[in-house]
Hints:
CATH architecture of the largest domain: Alpha-Beta Barrel
Structural class: alpha/beta
Number of helices: 11
Number of strands: 13
Order of helices and strands: HHHEHEEEEHEHEHEEEHEHEHEH
Strand content: 5-15%
CATH class of the largest domain: Alpha Beta
Radius of gyration: 24 Å
Strand order of the largest sheet: 6-5-13-12-11
CATH topology of the largest domain: TIM Barrel
Distance between the termini: 63 Å
Number of domains: 2
Amino acid sequence: MDGDIVAATLLLFIVIAVHNRQVYSRYDDRKAVRRTMLGQDVDTIVDAVMDRISEGGPTAVTRLGPSGTGGNMATLPGVAVSGPAGCGTSTQNLATIQAAAPPYEAPNSQTTAVVEIPNGSATQVAELPPSTTAHLATVAQTIPGTLIPLSKNTKKGFVVGVSDPTCTGKINSLNCGWYYTWGPTAPAVAPANGAIPFTPMIWNISKTPNISAVVSALKITGQGANSEPLLGYNEPDGTNASAQGNMTVGEAVQSWPLLVSTGRILAAPVMYGSLVHPPAAPNPNCIPAPTGVTGPVMVNIANSGMPANKVDLDPTIWLDNFLIQLAQTSNPVFPSIMTIHWYGPPKSQSFLSYVDAVWAKYNLPIWVTEYSCADWKATCCNPQTQHTAGFDWSLPDDSNISTNATAQFMTQTVQGMMARHYVDRFSWKERFLLANPDGSAVSAAYPLTGVPDSLMAASNPDVMNQSALFASYQHKPSSVPPLTPLGKLYASF
């Protein structure tokens, strides 16, 4: 082969490798900044943040000393800072705001500071939970110069479709740190004036109109711009065409380069079935079988330039088959995030054990994009839905919120995910309320407003009423419904 051609080819491979390392390490870099511990040297944090500013990416600039010792917020050259009420403010380039115990150590402390990049193009909001081992929170964009409250829990999110006219209001009501809509676009009116990060999703390739234009619009236009990760297909292993992605592995692998072309960090397609247990019967969407693979196989699912991440994959599991076949393509780009859906009885340990098992298997950050309590074995009606015995399926209300099983499940799982460094995000999933078979409200605590969209019936038992966050009997209400007691609990985290 001609020497110039060899050199050019080698250079091309180097460029591709460097590009992949830059693009697909961004998620890890961002987490490294976000998880910097309070006890670390301020200069270390400043250096990391300055690197992110130089790239034009999202940054956090807050640092507190150990609990009870005060501390200060490390600020950066060329960055104007506004402090929360009671802590003083400064617009000096090298300002320092003293961090007295309140409000930083108060149980309900929220916003720490607003930091404006000098060109005025973005304002960064950083939040620290009241803990000596708290990590720097994910940074959100807001209106320059405006101090806004953020959720105490930037892992917490919500999913609601853009066709719901109350989409924005619901997200605002829940005090979320992020959200998604099962699609590639945010609502026309962005929640919290655009301060809450929106994460796009490609639900299914063939059912996404004008997919080429959609993908083009999702492409990153510059370092840090439009840089939220992209969620992969929604339950492609499920065969319910109206409610699930319903894609074969072959279709998913073939269309994956479209998602890769956006330049975004990619989250794995989220499964309807288990990620850690083979299906009891062959999944009709888990086809074709990977070439030359007849049983479990070890595959390195790390992207180019990243440390090896060898995972034992079972080709009878849809996602594992997908990853195996992706590895068999040239220059594969693997997901950098694992996603989970989970529904079941109010057994928090079962849920958290599954999360732990997914982490142990794939060794990738986890997003729980849908989860809640659901009784799939419920039947109807005698005179109302009959639930699976052995569990408390009662509706949470103000009188039982501290003992209700669903409320306890929510509290325990949120606390469990907050304590797990590998769980980066989670989102509770609700449905609108089903009315009783006679059209009446299910409880005085959940009053009927308007005509209910759906009644309990033999073909429509009450599977998830106890998990509702909003007291609405309509799928698409005309005004933002009030929060249920469980919704108030979720908003409080």
